[in-house]
Amino acid sequence: MARTVVITGPSGVGKGTLIRSLRERMPELQLSVSATTRRPRTGETQGEDYHFMSPAEFEQHVAAGDFVEHADYAGARYGTLRSELETRSASGAPVLLEIEVQGARQVRRTMPEAVQVFIAPPSVEALRARLVGRGTDPPEQVEARLRSAEAELAAQQEFPHVVVNDRLEDAVEELVQIVRETTSTR
Ligand code: ADP
Ligand code: 5GP
What we know:
Order of helices and strands: EHEEEHEEHEHEHHEH
Oligomer: single chain
Bound molecules: adenosine-5'-diphosphate, guanosine-5'-monophosphate
Shape: globular
Helix content: 40-55%
């Protein structure tokens, strides 16, 4: 059975929100903390939300081959550290990776056994409303994310599992079912 579950989809679709609810239902699930060169948002904590690092530090990890996958996204770099994935896997519980589509593609090649779930918005208008409504990103960041979303939405057919996050409770239920069935975690 799979030990890694990739949750992907455009920024603002509700990946973080869904993962919070999923982990309330399945507390044993581990969440991999990514590295990024993006600046912390208000309320974000080093080592909890991300391993925030300088571009130079990130590049050193790239050169050393420390990343399972990494990608450039909306003007910053994001990646999954192999050490992070190994630490989180040590308990034997499945590990969730919350990453964008380019990273999910890399994981598909290098870890074909990983489960891949694409979270889709009910519409592009709803996605925009969520990105704006979240209130965490300045307008130019919202636009950069919506530009990326176009290509990301076109990629959803590559994914074996697609969950439309329309009504949150329905989407959580669907996600719980997928994770239970593919990881045999009860
Ligand atoms: P992501 O992690 O994919 O960038 P978030 O989890 O931060 O997205 O969600 C973006 C915004 O959309 C948040 O303000 C969140 O409360 C809201 N949201 C998430 N799911 C839904 C939903 N099903 N219906 C309406 N709003 C939602
Ligand atoms: P945000 O800046 O909103 O936290 O994240 C922007 C995008 O980067 C989101 O779609 C998020 O899923 C993605 N992301 C977060 N961590 C990683 C990672 O380690 N690798 C990749 N490829 N994408 C990531």
